[in-house]
Write a structure and sequence with these properties.
Layout lengths: L2 E7 L2 H8 L8 E7 L17 E7 L8 H18 L5 E3 L3 E4 L2 E12 L4 E10 L16 H5 L5 H20 L3 H11 L4 E7 L2 E10 L5 E5 L4 E4 L5 E2 L1
Parallel strand pairs: 1-2
Antiparallel strand pairs: 2-3, 3-7, 4-5, 5-6, 6-7, 8-9, 8-12, 9-10, 10-11
Helix pairs in contact: 2-4, 2-5
Enzyme class: ligase
Keywords: ATP-binding, Ligase, Nucleotide-binding
Protein name: Biotin-protein ligase
């Protein structure tokens, strides 16, 4: 496995996208700090020293409709890593990892693909480890050191995440989708109210389950069910 390390970079996802076509699958970019880290909807992602900011280049021979499962692999790997360090974490569809209802990790998959083929996917993971959480975010965000009250060497976290990610990516390549979806369900926050914000407007409902491709099945207030695809929503 190749790891490219930077003390400082604009964004590990941006860097990974720049080299992805020429780089072999599995290469990891990791940085101590990012100057312009970003999350979904290009929201800025604060990335000071002490956090884990990494991106993995993947080139699965598959179609783009399977990409959401790759996001799931990231979330599962992070939850399992946190478990190893004694932290009980849950996944909020599609890509957040929460501890005590507070966000500890965000995952951002970006890719290049046609209708039939995926050229590459960059799986970005931003995990709050020993980095300070800004005052104004303390009610909604947390870190490993906040939860445990001690600092964990970031290399140990990095090693565990990459090991779990590799395990789950192999399952994905073997076509063991059901195993991935089952693990995801086991660790997810389901059966609770969510607010989905789409371009057409906002809808409320209860997150019931996911389907075979990872779309969220939402029960609306009038009892109707609707599928929400990854990509066109933000959840509150
Ligand atoms: C989100 O919750 O919106 C996703 C946040 C993803 C942040 C990570 S940090 C490493 C990688 N590089 C980036 O610029 N973003 C991702």
């Amino acid at each position: 496995k190749k790891v490219i390390y930077f003390q400082e970079i604009d964004s590990t996802n941006e860097y990974a996208k720049r080299i992805a076509l020429d780089e072999e699958e599995g290469t990891i970019i990791v940085a101590d700090t990012q100057k312009s880290g970003y999350g979904r909807k290009f929201r800025m992602w604060a990335s000071p020293r002490g956090g884990l900011w990494m991106s993995v280049i993947l080139k699965p021979k598959t179609t783009p409709d399977h990409i959401v499962k790759i996001v799931f692999l990231g979330a599962i790997a992070v939850v399992e890593t946190l478990e190893r360090f004694g932290i009980d974490a849950r996944i909020k569809w599609p890509n957040d990892v929460l501890v005590n209802e507070k966000k500890i990790c965000g995952i951002l998959a970006e890719g290049s693909f046609s209708e039939k083929e995926v050229y590459y996917i960059v799986l970005g993971v931003g995990l709050n480890v020993n980095n300070p959480i800004p005052e104004e975010l303390l009610s909604t965000s947390t870190s490993i050191s906040n939860v445990l009250g001690v600092q964990i060497p970031i290399e140990e976290i990095f090693r565990t995440i990459t090991e779990r990610l590799e395990y789950w990516y192999k399952e994905f390549l073997r076509g063991n989708d059901e195993k991935i979806l089952q693990k995801w369900r086991e660790k997810a926050l389901l059966n609770r109210g969510v607010k989905v914000i789409r371009e057409e407007g906002e809808i409320r409902g209860k997150a019931l389950d996911i389907d075979d491709l990872g779309a969220l099945i939402l029960e609306l207030e009038d009892g109707r069910k609707e599928k929400i695809l990854y990509g066109d929503v933000s959840l509150r």
